What we know:
Elements: H1 2-15, E1 17-22, H2 27-41, E2 45-53, H3 60-75, E3 81-86, H4 94-108, E4 112-116, H5 123-138, E5 144-148, E6 163-167, H6 172-179, H7 186-206, E7 212-218
Parallel strand pairs: 1-2, 1-4, 2-3, 4-5
Antiparallel strand pairs: 5-7, 6-7
Helix pairs in contact: 2-6, 3-6, 4-5
Bound molecules: zinc ion.
Amino acid sequence: MRARSLKGKAKRAAAGRLLVIACHPDDESIACGGTIAAHVADGWEAHVLVLTSDARTPGLAAIRKRECRDACEALGAQPPIFVDIPERRLSQHPDAFAAGVAKVLRNVRPRKVFLHGPIDINRDHRAAALMGRQVLRNIGYPGELYQYCVWFPTNIALGPYPLRTIGISSYSSCKDRAMACYPSQAGIIRQLRFLLRATNRVAGLLSRERDAEVFSRRQ
Ligand SMILES: [Zn+2]
């Protein structure tokens, strides 16, 4: 038993680390949940950085953080890291954004980063895409960058960069369990689920999988 667990640790250390940078608690599960679970199953260590928290509704920020911890656990990721920039005002806090992201990048040293993409109807998501790319450039991030879209993920096809799909057929139920960890967002997630399932299924056609998540990819 002991030898087996040590072997597991060695496999994890060899496979590398990934970092998902998410504006809000739930973005990581909606856009990258299957990808996180698939990588963890493959021996990767997965980290999630959540940029904003909602300070307008008393108590809601703490509830959403707890939900995010549960979702990360369901996906096999490490406990999430929170930066606490005010929700809907990400673009007004470039210094806090840059400091928070750079610190986590230095600590985690990921081989793969998953970041919002610039084509999305949510303004925080768009701001994170632009500011995130700037931070990665400034620190000379040497790894792979994958950009995702939460709202209307088919919009990724409109971007100028190559598409990349990651098969999640064996992890769709794990992704569903992670999204179910967000009862405070149940209405939005219920509405998005139909679109997500369809997108994951169509992306699967591109990757010879039943289901896949789709990203735009830049080196
Ligand atoms: Zn979001």
